[in-house]
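Marked as duplicate of an earlier ticket. Keeping the data here for the record.
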Amino acid sequence: MAEPARLTEPPSAVSDRLAGLSRRERLEYLRRRIAAVPARGGAVSDASVPGESAQVLPVPTPLATLLPNGGLARGSVVAVSGATSLLLGLLATVTAAGGHAAVIGRPGLGLLAATEMGAQLQRLAFVPDPGPDPVEVAAVLLDGMDLVVLGLGGASVPPSRARAVVARVRSKRSTLVVTDGHWDGAEVRLDAQVRGYDGVGSGADAGRGRVCAVRLAVRAQGRAFRPRSTCLDLRSAQGRVEWVPETAMSVAL
């Protein structure tokens, strides 16, 4: 298995280095590390609709119908909550399409699960412990990444600070995904809730067996569209995790 990119250093080294630096030194250090990351993946395609074109980042196929233009718009902020599978699916789809992504402040994120969804770990950078100001770290990484995931650890970002970061997101044409906290002004909000499992048995065999599928209900809402929802399965098949839409699930049954 390929080792995940971690700004060219192990997570512990990155975290220790950031903790020992002043604000100015921290910014300079991150800029140097970003300069060492390959350029953004040109394979991430642009999507368009009649009469206008918009650059978007791809999402798992069953989620495309929930979003305008079928993906996450570049230059936007997206709030993601609920089941971690949703976040892993976004990372997997973007990196599989050739894009680069960074994950900040999410030390427990499951890399094995992301890999089973198709994530390309060599295109993922991790800063598991960004220090006292993860928002600042995210603002720097926006310069070199297609997608930046920011774990807020339950914090609430002041509106004035959020507006400044949004302006940077737009200027860099990246996409910022915020989790585990409060962020005013996100253009899109995605929430995923687990609705059940397959493979754990029933009746006298309840709780036995091996989970082979997780059923999710995903809801999307945003400024420019009415709330939309869908149900889908995350199903294991030959060592890979596939996103199966509700219609395909019905046919299979």
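See parent ticket for discussion. The two ends are 34 Å apart (CA to CA).
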